[in-house]
Amino acid sequence: MCGIVGYNGNLDAKEILLKGLEKLEYRGYDSAGIAIRNKEGVTVFKEKGRIKDLRNVVDGEIKGNIGIGHTRWATHGVPNKINAHPHQSATKRFTIVHNGVIENYHLLKKQYLNNIPMQSETDTEVIVQLVEQFSKEGLSTIEAFRKTLSLLHGSYAIALLDEEDGDTIYVAKNKSPLLVGVGDGCNVVASDAMAMLQVTNQFIEIHDGEVVLVQKEKIEISTLDGQKIERKPYTVELDASDIEKGTYPHYMLKEMDEQPGVVRKIIQEYSNEAGELSIDEAIFAALRGADRIYIIAAGTSYHAGLVGKEYFEKLAGIPVEVHISSEIGYNMPLLSEKPLFIFISQSGETADSRQVLVKVKELGHPALTITNVAGSTLSREADYTLLLHAGPEIAVASTKAYVAQLAVLAIVAYVAGEGSDVDLKKELAIVANAIQTMVDSKDEMQKIALEYLNNVRNAFFIGRNMDYYVSLEGALKLKEISYIQAEGFAGGELKHGTIALIEEETPVFALVTQEAVALNIRGNVKEVVARGANACVISMEGLNEEDDRFVIPKVHTLLTPLVSVVPLQLISYYAALERGCDVDKPRNLAKSVTVE
Ligand code: F6R
Q: Would you say the CB of residue 89 lies under 6 angstroms from ligand 1?
């Protein structure tokens, strides 16, 4: 869950690396560092904190045309300057940045590096010390690098500099994301194309188990055992402005504002020439051929999966199980005869989900990935991919990707269901307008945040049926960015234990958008109010009552989650702002969770 960059070319590397790391900060932001190579050798700068803190310690005068950089989300060793990357070998000949986790680093240390004093607590340092160890035994750098890689168990994306080789960045990958970029007079390395769009939009995918020599004029890809591989670059269709905040104070606010446009774009992307909603025929056939769908996802994407289950069951008549990826991987349920696995992942890189996909492929079952990132690991490794078309989501808290996941799931289920009597295209257009009304109600959401969440310790979100799934997502949004302890509950479950936590002024957000259970959830609201709760009812037009705090526009019952989540996102945003939290980069979190 770290980000790495590398530059080898005609220009001064320092600023390119720092700018690249700024674009990767979403992947980790507890410490950062760069290494610059010039005639004098390799110089490392690192610092605890953000890239702006790193900038303060980088020598403004240093020049060099080759360099590597890293932004860290700590796994092994606390976030501090010593554990920050780059790490160097004992003689400082080799310098490395690494994203991933080396599971057998203790063993390797014991077996090969007993006499080498380690500088840091990281698993990464073992890699660079091993390369040095093997090169001291007489291997060339590439041989020592390959031998080291062959010993590693776990995940890695690595960029390595050798002080004695001024021409090359040694690169390798296993399970962690990594791309190589082809520039004009330079070649680059990055965990995510966004980091190097400043230099090029031509990128080459690197596959697991490959080693790459990145030189100024050429890129050489080979397998771990040395067989050469030819692979053409592809064009990344991202506009640099897509990844800028513009006039917005936070990416999260920008991304919430983009949601109506995202729904409209999805309608367009999934419409055929006749203007009807459609999906790829092979995916349609896979869905029709399945006797059960297994949705696998984590966090917000899991919450989208819960809604997706309703879509598939109600619109397509296909039974669905939804599983948290970190759980199912180690405890596969009894599968049906013809299962289809659907992986939902904004980033397409989530390690928990990926380990399930690997198992699913071993078992020989078909898999479809629904992701926002074309070419991501989960997309490449599944049989089929459907894209979210939400544009880059930079804020750690997912907003527009969740709404996009719901829209795509609805379309897929609708197309798979063929004969559904819902006019989904029209209904989604109504949803886009309703979301617009919601994002235009920011002032009201700010007021609600102040009214209900000022100085509170905890908060509850309740709902039934679809509203329950959105309650889970609303609670996750609030806790991750404002650090208020928040829980989402099925309204009916409260009285089975949790209601004991309701005391004077406890905020309870209740969603009322499902006609079939509207009276029941109103009953639950009465129960908490009777125990002193400060209840904020958000209902849908047609189901609203006089004291409701906010009424969302009427949309199709199945599609309410796309709209009712928006006030919860906005309320969380304003609560976090009020508390002075770092909205886009909440503590302890990273956007792309590439460790299990
Ligand atoms: C919360 C959030 C996370 C992610 C989760 C899975 O706002 O973004 O809960 O949903 O880490 O990530 P993806 O969707 O990239 O697989």
A: no
